């Protein structure tokens, strides 16, 4: 693979990775949010495979394929199952979409733009130390970390907050790949199993919240507690 082709494909993967996070922030239907999260998983896997093939590191290619299976296949499948359970037990339409997020769509998109600019400003000294195609894309990973944290704190539905947590983890993983040209296989496997376990636990908690309280709205549950 030539250097020019590698740079173009890496930029394409990073652009799709960041765009998916912005679309997740913009959309309100939980089914669409899960779908775009799966697309981000594909972009993250492509990023890792590109880095591995460019550097002839087949362990990194294997890590990228494993990430694709987990974050574009297994995790979205588990979230779709939780969403189907909400629909199957007679949940109202507002249970499968964000009806009243803490920040509206226009303000969310503006915030995403500001967070992306902040990420580029923060990462600039790092990219100047060793300017390579991978390090120049480092702000994308940082931007997704910030956007994921923003989704996590502004969404009211439990499932949407799970997606925000996973966006945050995807951003951290992408930052590690771009900054260090990948992480050891055993480290990525450990982190991935931790994430999978967390999602399984959160799926069970979401189902039990729905059965016990009739809603997955965190604010409503806080009012019940008060």
Question: Would you write up a description of this structure?
Answer:
The protein is an all-alpha fold and 226 residues long. 82% of the residues lie in helices and 0% in strands. The chain has helices at 3-26, 30-54, 58-88, 105-129, 133-136, 138-154, 158-180, 185-213, 218-225. The radius of gyration is 18 Å and the shape is globular.
List the helices and strands and how they pair.
Blueprint lengths: L2 H24 L3 H25 L3 H31 L16 H25 L3 H4 L1 H17 L3 H23 L4 H29 L4 H8 L1
Helix pairs in contact: 1-2, 1-6, 2-3, 2-7, 3-8, 4-6, 6-7, 7-8
Instruction: Summarize the amount of helix as a percent range.
Output: over 70%
Overall spatial form: globular
Low-confidence stretches: none
Tally of strands = 0
The biggest beta sheet reads: none
| pLDDT averaged over residues | 81
Radius of gyration: 18 Å
Distance between the termini: 60 Å
**Secondary structure tally, helices:** 9
Q: How large is the share of residues in beta strands?
A: under 5%
Computed structural class = mainly alpha
Order of helices and strands: HHHHHHHHH
